[in-house]
Amino acid sequence: MRKRLIISAIAAFTGFLFAYGYSEELFVLLTAPLIPALPPGHDYMAFTSIVEPFFVYLKIGFVFGILFASPVIIYQVWAFVAPGLYRAEKIWFISIVMASLVLFLAGSLFAFTIVFPYGFKYLLGYSGQDLRPVLSIGLYFSMIVRFLLVFGLSFQLPLVILILSRLGLVTAGKLISWWRYAIVTILIASAVLTPTPDVFNQLLMAGPLAFLYMLGIIVAKVFAKERKEDRETESDLAVTKTGF
Length: 244
What we know:
mainly alpha, about 0% strand
């Protein structure tokens, strides 16, 4: 474990150095959904303290450094736990980790390319002749990272349902019977989590989450059936061994 932690720390530090060297370019990338929505002649950002840009670039280095080092870190985690897993457990572990990464990236990309441009355009629509936006780079960075994290985690819904169904805690029938409560919960969560209060942007998040919930029902049905077949196979093996 010590060896794995040291390698992961070295990878994270190397990723930080690399990301910090390109922190300005990475910040420009993060502002891509915002700048087009700013009023003409005000397509820039500001900082409210002398040290704010420095700390923002440090945070960019840290966040993107972890992101760049994540393949090494994930491999080190895998190398640590793999010797204690059976073959079937190894397959499940790899599948869950890969699915989680794909869903997280899909959620973050969806927010960055679709939700943010519409949301920023709506919010900045309140500006006028007597009201001009002066946006802090520190506050913007904190907001966009927080929302990317929220959207990435919210897209884990099918994976959570899969795990719960494998544990026998939920079934496809229960999920279908709970669909009204699920829709209300999704709408409330979308209203809280989206960056704007308008219905359109809330639906941009609620729509994919409702789809993911329905996908989770299919997942629960498939894997609950698989779990039942596994139990029946184990029961048959036990009967064969005991002779009863």
